[in-house]
Amino acid sequence: QVQLVESGGGLVQPGGSLRLSCAAFGNIFSMFTGTWYRQAPGKQRELVAMITTDGDTNYADSVKGRFTISKDNTKNTVYLQMNSLKPEDTAVYYCNTVPPGPWGQGTQVTVAS
User: Fold this and answer.
1) 40-66 burial by CB neighbour count: b if 16+ within 10 A, else e?
2) Which segments in the chain show pLDDT lower than 50?
3) C-alpha pair distances (Å), 60 with each of 16, 28, 37
4) Span between the terminal Cα atoms of the chain, in Å
5) Strand 18-24, strand 77-82: pairing
6) What is the pLDDT of residue 3?
């Protein structure tokens, strides 16, 4: 199984920023597309962003222009820079690959005053 560990979540005020990290145990993101998902209370898990092995990116419309996915293959890590955060961004954020492995614990992001 691919093992990924999310970190960087926390409580932030509306308009604030957070950077999430997804650490892989191996050169995963040189081989596979990396993804960020989120799941808010009472909602389905949704795809937020993805980055291909070549570095091409895609975003959900809800986060486009505010979030940036990136990666450092040397560090085996993908990132999600989240700016201009809104309360509706509150969710547990998960990273994964394509094809996916099992879902980890994720990291909680709470946007509130």
Assistant:
1) eeeeeeeebbbbeeeeeeebeeebeee
2) none
3) 19, 23, 10
4) 39
5) antiparallel
6) 87
Q: Indicate the SS3 state at residue 88.
A: helix
Report the amino acid identity of residue 107.
Answer: T
> For residue range 53-76, what is the model confidence (pLDDT) as tens digits?
999 999 999 999 999 999 999 999
User: Residue 82: what residue type?
Assistant: M
Q: Which two tokens stand for residue 98?
A: 């394509």
Cis peptide before 99 (omega within 30 of 0): yes
CA of residue 113 relative to chain centroid, distance: 22
DSSP class of residue 65 equals: T
pLDDT value for 1: 61
Whether the CB-CB separation of 29 and 93 falls below 8 Å is answered with no
Identify the sign of the CA torsion 57, 59, 63, 69: negative
Least Cα distance to 35 among 106, 111, 110, 108 occurs for: 106
